[in-house]
Amino acid sequence: TTANGIEKLPPTEILTKSAAAMATASSVAVSRSSKDDGPEMSLDLVLGTGVGRGTMSLNGTTLMEFRETGGKMYWKTTREGFESIVGPGDASKLLGGRWVVAPVGATDGEVPGPGEFGDKDALLAPLVQEGAKATVKGTGEVDGTPVVFVKTSGSDGTATLAIQTVGEPYVVQVRSDGMVLFDFSDWNAPVNVTAPAGAVSPADLMKEVGPSS
């Protein structure tokens, strides 16, 4: 792959060009795995613009799955997964294993904000903080891909972005305090998402729960 020479630019220009490249990309895969003297949490996402899918797992067991397509967010969790988030109760029996659907941007109850979780641009935009200080920290490789490391410091904290120096200047990894926060791969790969059958709305779930005592 052809070198792009981005490592020769000032740090703020590197970030600007990287942000522009990522904004025009059609999709990206995002992964994260963390274990801090406890259970291992992992996140795997495949995101396009207005379309995406992903899973959240604990020690290899899926806790939550989501899909975004057609202007709607679909999500489901296992009973064990729901209880690990909000604790045991009747809601875990009702929600466990069932798909719930809400329009993109819905804020009804505990429904996640789809535009913030399932969309490529919403996830990537905060990587380059407006007004953040930036410093080039040298070059190297991430999984065999040559990169330039740019440390940013802004209102959202400090992070080091590994930006590839071949092809398009996409971010391939984000680190903080020496830990890998996110890995990015499969830029511009097709994203195929289908709406699950039998999904219910939050309002329908509330009807099933019935009036509170």
What secondary-structure arrangement, pairings included, does this model have?
Elements (H helix, E strand, L loop, with lengths): L10 H14 L3 E7 L6 E7 L4 E7 L2 E9 L2 E6 L1 H8 L3 H6 L4 E4 L10 H4 L2 H5 L8 E10 L2 E10 L2 E8 L6 E6 L2 E7 L16 H8 L4
Antiparallel strand pairs: 1-2, 1-11, 2-3, 3-4, 4-5, 5-6, 7-8, 8-9, 9-10, 10-11
Q: How would you describe what is shown here?
A:
The chain has 213 residues and is α+β, with helices and mostly antiparallel strands. It has helices at residues 11-24, 79-86, 90-95, 114-117, 120-124, 202-209, and strands at 28-34, 41-47, 52-58, 61-69, 72-77, 100-103, 133-142, 145-154, 157-164, 171-176, 179-185. Strands 6-5-4-3-2-1-11-10-9-8-7 form an eleven-stranded antiparallel β-sheet. Strand 9 (157-164) and strand 10 form a beta hairpin. The longest helix has 14 residues, at 11-24. It is elongated, with a radius of gyration of 19 Å. Mean pLDDT is 82; it is low at 108-115.
Task: Summarize, please.
The protein has 213 residues and is an alpha+beta fold. The protein is 21% helix and 38% strand.
